[in-house]
Amino acid sequence: MRYSETFVKYTKTLAAPQYEPLSQVRERELLKEYMNGSKEAFNTIINAYLRFVIFLLRQYKIPDDVDIMDIVQEGNMGLLYGLSKFNVTVYDCRVSTYCAYWIKFFMGKNLQDALKKREFFTPLEDDDTLLSNSSFITNYSPVDEKYRVRVIEDMSAFCFKDLTNRERLIINLYHGLIHPFVPKTLQEIASMLHTNLERVRQIKNEAKKKIEPPLTTYLNN
Questions:
Q1: Contact between residue 219 and residue 208 where contact means Cβ atoms under 8 Å apart
Q2: In this structure, which of 37, 89, 158, 160 has its CB flanked by the most CB atoms within 10 Å?
């Protein structure tokens, strides 16, 4: 695809030293400073992960009629929101492991309408040299599946805010998002709630309509 001049300039800007990825040790130091209220530490971490947003952008095929900078800005918002939710005392992983979910969530949310009739996660062509530049992948740890459930719990609080207590309970049980973190069948949930199977199915379907659609990317339907 052809990239806008704004996007090309933006990616060149990220070559500056202040956007270099952090070492694991330095990142941990900055996280502790951030947890103690340092805005400077927060901004330093954000700058170090702006390249990571571009790296994750490679997982999407962007339609020609969509401004790629809109997707980038949404990804940056996901990075900001994810870091604001990151708790160094709870997660011992890299920021990239945790924030990858939030970045993709926000980018997917923006692409939702444009990609309704397209394959959702389609990699860009391998010869796309702008997005495959090695400067966008240095020192980033891969997403670790062992954190998936805990991250989804954080995301669910953000996405399930419009659900009733009963709807939230059924969705969480169905996807194994609460203790003991084992997905339940609709029949099992019906038995737990002392109601019939069809009523549980109905509540589940009503709840899913209220959930931010991109979250279903991470939930098994």
A1: no
A2: 160
Both 195 and 150 in one domain: the answer is: yes
| The model's pTM | 0.66
What is the residue whose two structure tokens read 């389609």? Answer: 122
At 143, is the pLDDT very low, low, confident or very high (cuts 50, 70, 90)?
Answer: low
* Residue 212: predicted pLDDT: 58
Q: Cis (ω within 30 of 0) for the bond into 180?
A: yes
| Burial of 191: CB neighbours in 10 Å, binned 0-12, 13-18, 19+ | middle
Q: What is the band of 200 on the pLDDT scale with cuts at 50, 70, 90?
A: very high
Domain range spanning residue 11?
5-142
The CATH number covering residue 169 comes to 1.10.10.10
Q: Are residues 80 and 188 in the same domain?
A: no
